[in-house]
Amino acid sequence: GDSVTQMEGPVTLSEEAFLTINCTYTATGYPSLFWYVQYPGEGLQLLLKATKADDKGSNKGFEATYRKETTSFHLEKGSVQVSDSAVYFCALPSGGGADGLTFGKGTHLIIQP
Amino acid sequence: DAMVIQNPRYQVTQFGKPVTLSCSQTLNHNVMYWYQQKSSQAPKLLFHYYDKDFNNEADTPDNFQSRRPNTSFCFLDIRSPGLGDAAMYLCATSLGRLAGPQETQYFGPGTRLLVL
């Protein structure tokens, strides 16, 4: 079935550092790809999405480009802030219709002042 | 603001005592989902409703049931909670099937269940 692999954390960075969280996927066809963020004790919030190859999703300074050649959807941000500390999940539709999302294991990001 | 609402945010129950978690949505979405998320793990889909059609994941225990009395509300019933059922339960919605390129899933804040 369709699956997502993302780098596992925790990832610890200093404020204003450059961030990359790697995500690769295995899928039939070209599904939409998503990044969700989960702050401590909260539900998941959609951070950004891309619906087709070469699309770039962006939000709150975060970006991710849908790369079908490398089956990747890496999350990047040029200058992280302490408030970006959270768990980040890469996801894609599970397939077969309305079957929910398949998530990566999540990457815990810690930004130190 | 249109949103997905979950009540309560924290629920404490006793081992074996039935518990119901609630979800409501003002998005008028057709599809509602329930996920279970255990500590430091990814969310795992339990089941979903497409309108009134119920779809159970193959590995969802029989102990977990769901009801959707109308478009806006969906309930998760745990008939006999065990210690292993302690988790965050996330409700989510989407307008249609996620295979569509314009589709997105929206999550509620979650209910954290503690089983004593």
Topology:
The complex is a heterodimer of chains A (113) and B (116).
Chain A (H helix, E strand, L loop, with lengths): L2 E4 L4 E4 L4 E3 L1 E4 L6 E6 L5 E7 L5 E4 L2 E4 L9 E3 L8 E8 L7 E3 L3 E6 L1
Chain B lengths: L3 E4 L2 E4 L5 E7 L5 E7 L6 E7 L2 E4 L7 E4 L5 E6 L8 E8 L11 E2 L3 E5 L1
Parallel strand pairs in B: 2-11
Antiparallel strand pairs in B: 1-3, 3-8, 4-5, 4-9, 5-6, 7-8, 9-10, 9-11
Explain what this protein looks like in three dimensions:
The complex is a heterodimer of chains A (113) and B (116). Chain A is mainly β and 113 residues long. Chain A has no helices and 12 strands. Chain A has strands at residues 3-6, 11-14, 19-21, 23-26, 33-38, 44-50, 56-59, 62-65, 75-77, 86-93, 101-103, 107-112. In chain A, the strands form 3 sheets. In chain A, strands 2, 5, 6, 10, 11 and 12 form a 6-stranded mixed β-sheet that branches. In chain A, strands 3-9-8-7 form a 4-stranded antiparallel β-sheet, with no helix packed on it. In chain A, strand 10 and strand 11 form a beta hairpin. Chain A is globular, with a radius of gyration of 14 Å. Chain B is mostly beta strands and 116 residues long. Helix content of chain B is 0%, strand content 50%. Chain B is built from no helices and 11 strands. In chain B, strand 7 and strand 8 (73-78) form a beta hairpin.
Q: Tally the beta strands of chain B.
A: 11
Could you estimate the helical fraction of the residues of chain B in percent?
under 10%
Residue share in helices of chain A?
A: under 10%
Any idea what the radius of gyration of chain B is? 14 Å
Major sheet of chain A: 6 strands, mixed
Based on CA inertia axes, which overall geometry of chain A fits?
globular
Any low-confidence stretches of chain B, pLDDT <50, length ≥5? none
Main β-sheet description of chain B: 7 strands, mixed
Strand content of chain A: over 45%
Strand-residue proportion of chain B: over 45%
**How far is the first residue's CA from the last residue's CA of chain B?**
36 Å
Output mean pLDDT of chain A.
92
Described by the principal axes of the CA atoms, the overall outline of chain B is globular
Tally of strands of chain A: 12
- The helix/strand class of chain B is mainly beta
Q: Give me the number of helical elements of chain A.
A: 0
Secondary-structure class of chain A: mainly beta
SSE string of chain B, helix = H, strand = E?
EEEEEEEEEEE
Mean pLDDT of chain B: 92
